[in-house]
Amino acid sequence: MKERLAPLAGIRVLDLSRVLAGPWCTQNLADLGADVIKVERPGTGDDTRSWGPPFLKDQDGNETTESAYYLSTNRNKRSVAIDFSKPEGAELVREMAKHCDILVENFKVGGLKKYGLDYDSLKEINPRLIYCSITGFGQTGPLASLPGYDFMIQGMGGLMSITGERDDLPGGGPQKAGVAVTDVITGMYATVAVLGALHERHRSNRGQYIDLALLDSHIAMLANQNLNYMTSGVAPKRYGNAHQNIVPYQVFEVSDGHMIVAVGNDGQFRAYCGVLERPDLGENPKYATNSQRLQHRDELVPLLADIMKTKPREYWIEQLQAVGVPCGPINNLDEVFAHPQVKAREVWRNIPHPVAGTAPTAANPIRFSDTPIQYRMAPPLLGEHTDEVLAELGLSLPQASE
Predict the structure, then answer these.
(1) Which of 80, 302, 305, 384 has the smallest set of CB atoms within 10 Å of its CB?
(2) Is 318 left (phi over 0), alpha (psi -120 to 50) or beta?
(3) Where in the chain is the domain with CATH 3.30.1540.10?
(4) b or e along 68-99 (b: 16 or more beta carbons within 10 Å of the residue's beta carbon)?
């Protein structure tokens, strides 16, 4: 048999997005084998190129202009520098769109219409184009015209109301996530939406428009917390490193630091109590079921916490894993990338880079059996592929006027 091609081999993506949500989507598409053409503003490019330090260092140890933030979300793409705020640049991008299957953008609502790069304009010249718009609040509603940023959406969309220590404990109050989770999850939903539209196009031979909002995606991400509220009418509160629906499922202090115990069912709780040498707690009617443990959380957890403090982390992890109780350490990124499991999965990858020699990247978690993800190209230098891409499409940059 011939070698199988990457899942999206032959698909061309015009990437007019920048920062994180849009580029996260297009990096996924690029990892799946699509030819992603990143159109950037000449001179400055994607905003995140300058979001540092840290910056990638060249082979002599000097800082480049490629920030770590930019590197995190732009591998396997080609960069074309075109100023489409000028008529000739906009016309060039329109010509490029004729040759593309997918377009991803994250401009404000209506922001590309003045350049003739909105969906209504481009579908006239390419009816098969799948056009994905990512905005803060979507194309409709009273806030549609406003910009949206991950941090403000984490607050507005409810995540910060359930993240952070309990209000009645020291350090209580709202807390954002340590990663821009709204942008990342929106990028993931955008990926799913684009692939769904691409599959549908096989039947209809028509493209379509995708309206994706940070706020919508963020609320969808709240999963069981949404349903906790929707079925009870009671808004969930912050529980710090504990769980609203499961006990014990939290961080515990141990004699040499902290660790996580994540008891998922009543059998695991009895096994946990056995390791703690308190089997009576597992059999006690007040604690025997998860519903009872939730009801008596404030009584039970201090008992468990006092026992956990008596021994070190590795002791507890070894003993609990031996009886099937989910548990684990709280690692910093040094410890994450040094972990044997992470090394075995080859999560740290290095890609050839024209200035630095190599650039690091965190592996895509998708593992195909027959068409593995290929780490073909490091995140591109600004405009690195302008001539190459335009030549392939039979196009060229407009000549500067005299």
Answers:
(1) 302
(2) alpha
(3) 249-337
(4) ebbbbbbbbbbbbbbbbeeeebbebbbebbee
CB contact at 8 A, 319 and 262: no
Q: What is the CATH number of domain 249-337?
A: 3.30.1540.10
Mean pLDDT per 10-residue interval, the chain, length 402 residues: 88 97 98 98 95 94 94 98 96 97 97 97 98 97 95 96 89 92 98 98 98 98 95 92 90 95 96 97 95 95 97 96 96 96 97 95 96 96 96 86 44
What span, in angstroms and rounded, lies between the C-alpha atoms of 219 and 222? 5
The set of residues, in sequence order, having a beta carbon less than 8 Å from that of 140 and lying 6+ positions away, is: 211
- Specify whether domain 12-221+346-392 bears CATH 3.40.50.2000: no
Length of the chain equals 402
* Whole-structure pTM value: 0.92
User: 57 pairs with which residues across the strands?
Assistant: 63
